TrEMBL record, chains A, B:
Name of protein: 3-dehydroquinate synthase
Cofactor(s) required for function per UniProt: NAD(+); Co(2+); Zn(2+)
Natural source organism: Castellaniella ginsengisoli
3-dehydroquinate synthase C-terminal domain sequence ranges: 180-323
A Pfam entry, by short name: DHQ_synthase
Pathway: Metabolic intermediate biosynthesis; chorismate biosynthesis; chorismate from D-erythrose 4-phosphate and phosphoenolpyruvate: step 2/7
Family named by the database record: Belongs to the sugar phosphate cyclases superfamily. Dehydroquinate synthase family.
Residues the entry annotates as binding Zn(2+): E183, H246, H263
Amino acid sequence: MHTVQVETPGGHYPIHIGAGRLDAVAHSIPADATAIAVVTNTTVGALYGARLRAALEATGKPLLTIELPDGEQYKTWESLDRIFDALLEAALDRKAVLVALGGGVVGDVCGFAAACYMRGIRFVQVPTTLLAQVDSSVGGKTAINHPRGKNMIGAFYQPQAVEIDPGVLATLPAREISAGLAEVVKYGMIADPAFFDWCEAHVDALRALDGEAIRHAVRRSCELKAWVVSQDERESGLRAILNFGHTFAHAIESGLGYGQWLHGEAVGCGMVMAAELSARVCGLEAGAVERIRALVQAIGCPTLPPGLGAGRWLDLMRVDKKNEGRHIRYVLLPALGRAEVRAVDDEIVRPLLPDVPQA
Amino acid sequence: MHTVQVETPGGHYPIHIGAGRLDAVAHSIPADATAIAVVTNTTVGALYGARLRAALEATGKPLLTIELPDGEQYKTWESLDRIFDALLEAALDRKAVLVALGGGVVGDVCGFAAACYMRGIRFVQVPTTLLAQVDSSVGGKTAINHPRGKNMIGAFYQPQAVEIDPGVLATLPAREISAGLAEVVKYGMIADPAFFDWCEAHVDALRALDGEAIRHAVRRSCELKAWVVSQDERESGLRAILNFGHTFAHAIESGLGYGQWLHGEAVGCGMVMAAELSARVCGLEAGAVERIRALVQAIGCPTLPPGLGAGRWLDLMRVDKKNEGRHIRYVLLPALGRAEVRAVDDEIVRPLLPDVPQA
């Protein structure tokens, strides 16, 4: 097992990475917990719910399971309220602990429920998708979507621990592996050129879920994320670089309707767009843009943006949380492995935004 | 003007108390704010909205007003979502600032909206009821109600500043003054016997809104609350004593339906019940119980609990946030001016809980 430590003002906690961690989650339940509620979705619950419950029964504490429907379109107030309802019906108190068993949606909704229930109870992340293992389960960002924008309602709220078992990725559809790899290669692009090189050299092993390659990718991703988050928990500066590609990605997801493209797929495409924009406004070399495009393609993510029409693209990007005033701010790369945030005039971005396809 | 400072891990901020503070709120808006959204209700908005907006126009910042319906029954997700909708429609960013102009409901809903919008933006409290001025605007508790329990969903989230203008109390109905005085006298009961004596001696002046008496009551209440909150922001210990009378009060509000009794009225009655329970389990003298009953009556709050039936009373109190496991925990007074939290067996409490009235 490998441990990465996260140190933020909102909490210090370990990320445990290793085969079999799913069976060891009981170690992360605080001794004074009065009850445990596992929050999962119907898909993951069917695959790993019984195994996790068996592991948690070792604590001897009352155990409740709450299953949400599966999909980004359920990252809503309704799902949140379903959790609150179940917790209140079971009369769980402030010393109850939630366990998020699932991907980014489950982790975000369960984490936000923990942040709000009785003004805050403890929770543990048990991410089961590659995307959640390398990104969303680490760093304490929790949220639900609003019809007007993704992740608009949420909290910075740190878990007690993150338990990562790469073994559970075996049941993940190939498309979700590709989506998760988008966030993995992102860390190389924004902060670690050597890791970018390594990803280029190990694409096939990663897509085939080779154990050693996946463990290294998860570990390095968690280290880089923990390093960024420990310096800037509440995204007042550095942390924004983790949103490389995300301004475009959020517009894709919101513009096509949540759940059409996977979040990681939209991020893959968004990173290609952001690389092209970087070439235009801060000097990213053409060769680097092509390497980014080739790697996104190699991991199996789309590289061609959908036609939403430039006006709609810009409107959708304008509700991004990074913005200040009316200017859209983008994470850009002056070079591979180095990121910065800057506002870019709409007219410079417009040529990158495809029109609505003609019927 | 008098200033009381609140120092918590979640934020340091001033409470300004003084005539005319409503016209000085612009001083509490941070210079880098990109926009201001005033959240109020239809009643308070009609009385003081224009005056506050005029004062805020001095900042030169874009100004938005969001009016909620008036009443505890609107302390819901729907009101919260109405705020999110308005903020997103106006494309307000993370550097926007909310201003809560109203009583406890507006302050709690607006504060919780600030805690969640884009994972947290800044806000300023401008309380306009006595209850909000002496209690709910100070200390960072924000929440909405859930059909299964009061204030069950929320956050600890501190404002940038609290601006208290006792002048606005002039338009408050007498019933709301009485409700606010319940929280004022509470501070004497739990922490300051001399202040309890002072309240007994100044009941008539307080109910008549005598300027000097009200200023002293607001100031001493804020000082005592700031002292408690600064030691225990997240209610892991000491802060629970502020809930004296509230276990019973929440059951009254929830059992009769939110909005039937005012929160402060329920607290008044709940303090009499808690005093009686204190006499039975921790030796509060009969004379002190009678002084508490007499003072609650003198400020104009009910002292006789409604008949909900003992079983229902206990069920309603069991969802209280102070509880751990299945035991109901009460704030009790071993003596006037001293409070402690302890679990009490249902059978000891039952005789205090009136039956359902016979038809």
